[in-house]
Structures are given as C-alpha cells and as structure tokens.
Design a protein that fits this description.
Blueprint lengths: L8 H24 L1 H14 L5 H8 L3 H13 L3 E6 L2 E9 L1 H21 L5 H28 L27
Antiparallel strand pairs: 1-2
Helix pairs in contact: 1-2, 2-5, 3-4
Length: 178
C-alpha cells in the first residue's frame, strides 16, 4: 500500500460518522426492544457458563447493579438459574436454563430475520465484503489496544476504587437459606 492509498482525514471522518450512526441505531433498537437486550445477555450467559454477576458486568460493559436487575428479570422468567457460589457464599453463579436456551434460539432467529431485511437488497458478495471489512476493523482495533497496553508496560487502564459497601447490605434471594 502506498501513502497515497491511505485514508485521509475526510475518509476517517466519514467512517467515524457512519459507525456512530450505525451504533446509535443499534442502541436505540436495544432500548426500544427489551428482547434485544435480553438476547445479548442470554448470549453472554450461554458463552460464559456459571459466570458471576461481576464477570457478566465486565463482559457487557455495564455496572453490576444493571446486570443484577437484568439477571433477576431473566431468573423470574425462568431463563436462568442463580445459585450460590460454593467457593464464596457472598457471590453467585448464573447459568442458562432449558427455557433460557429455547428463548435464546427464538430471539436469535428474530434477530437474524431482522438483519436479513437490512441487507435484503444487497448482493451476497456485498454482505461478505462488508462482513470481512467489519472483522478487519475489529482486528485493527484489538491490535491498537494491545500495542497501547504494551506501551504502558502491559498495565491495564487503572480502574476507579470500588465504593465502600454499606454496613447493612441486603441479602440477595440466592443468598437466603431455605
């Protein structure tokens, strides 16, 4: 690749604008449709069997209180089971139930049908090219993040200190003894 083939400032600005528009549209869709949020969390839980709320929160980049509310909703619907962590009774492990697997499959199909409508007028090669470029972009982002972390001496970005726990913490359902 020669320097004249590299993207210029206007190219990058258009890319960023397009990505922001797509991301905003996807976020609006998730906010308007609880099923979209449920699908994402069910997918993460399926990929991380017996994860803790802290692990799930990190995986989906949400505050742990948001995850706790969402997991409670999924548990009430029968889509996940929440059990005390045998190694640390203060925490729990979340797993997908059979009903959760069925709901995941149902929501996945709805999502795939929706995205199929977005590209219904595209040629198959356009979809493949777009997919390849998105994957290339994601790999480039990951490589930049790796180099930046390496330049910082392998240290991850500092995280803010956790807020002190209140002395009167309420017990969660899964912590109660029967």
């Amino acid at each position: 690749m020669t320097s004249s083939e590299r993207p210029n400032q206007e190219d990058v600005e258009r890319l960023v604008t397009a990505l922001f528009q797509v991301n905003a549209g996807l976020e609006r869709g998730k906010q308007r449709n609880a099923q979209a949020s449920a699908l994402y969390l069910l997918q993460v839980i399926a990929a991380m069997p017996a994860a803790s709320p802290t692990e799930l929160a990190a995986a989906v980049s949400l505050h742990q209180s948001s995850i706790t509310r969402q997991v409670s909703s999924l548990e009430e619907a029968g889509y996940v089971s929440v059990a005390v962590n045998p190694r640390d009774r203060r925490s729990c492990r979340i797993t997908l139930s059979e009903a959760g697997r069925a709901e995941l499959a149902r929501l996945y199909q709805i999502g795939m049908s929706r995205f199929a409508t977005f590209v219904a007028d595209w040629d198959a090669e356009e979809v493949r090219t777009f997919t390849r470029l998105l994957m290339k972009f994601e790999a480039s982002k990951a490589e930049v993040a790796r180099r930046e972390q390496e330049a910082q001496g392998g240290q991850a970005s500092p995280t803010p200190p956790a807020s002190p726990a209140s002395p009167q913490r309420r017990r969660r359902r899964w912590q109660e003894t029967p």
